[in-house]
């Protein structure tokens, strides 16, 4: 299980770097970062719960991603101050967009596909 966790950790790190780079270059559409963000959430959960089913991790990933997006409708000084920081903006976002929910769903589906392709031998052992 340790080997699998290391692979999930490394994959998460690659996704984080790609996500940060996607925000640095203006030629990359903003939705790409949202897709990568949700994929990262999926693999962070896979890292912490490698024995959980893909269905369970998918559901939790969707709940987390959607909850954070809907939290952007909540406007209070304390949370807006958090969103004004770099990490707050990267984790919590700033503005609610329905399209972000589509991006998150796509990112989680990409995570599932990567999981099944790269880690098929681990998934079969369970």
Category by helix and strand content? mainly alpha
Count of helical regions? 7
Helix-strand pattern, N to C?
Answer: HHHHHHH
Q: How many domains would you count in the coordinates?
A: 1
| Shape assignment | globular
Low-confidence stretches: none
Measured as a percent range, the helix fraction is over 70%
| Quaternary state of the chains | single chain
**Main beta-sheet strand count, sense and barrel state:** none
Distance from first to last alpha carbon: 11 Å
| Mean pLDDT across residues | 91
> How many strand units?
0
Instruction: Round the Cα radius of gyration to an integer and report it.
Output: 15 Å
Percent of residues in beta strands? under 5%
Structure, described:
- The protein has 126 residues and is an all-alpha fold.
- It has one domain (2-125).
- The chain contains seven helices and no strands.
- The protein has helices at residues 2-24, 30-48, 54-71, 77-83, 86-92, 98-118, 120-125.
- It is globular and about 45 Å long.
- The mean pLDDT is 91.
């Amino acid at each position: 299980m340790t080997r699998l966790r290391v692979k999930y950790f490394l994959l998460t790190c690659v996704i984080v770097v790609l996500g940060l780079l996607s925000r640095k270059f203006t030629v990359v559409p903003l939705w790409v970062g949202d897709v990568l963000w949700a994929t990262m959430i999926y693999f962070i959960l896979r890292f912490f719960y490698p024995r959980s089913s893909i269905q369970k991790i998918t559901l939790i990933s969707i709940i987390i991603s959607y909850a954070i997006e809907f939290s952007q409708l909540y406007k209070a000084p304390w949370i807006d101050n958090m969103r004004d920081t770099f990490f707050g903006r990267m984790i919590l976002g700033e503005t609610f967009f329905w399209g972000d929910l589509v991006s998150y769903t796509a990112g989680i589906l990409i995570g599932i596909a990567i999981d099944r392709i790269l880690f098929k031998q681990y998934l079969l052992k369970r």
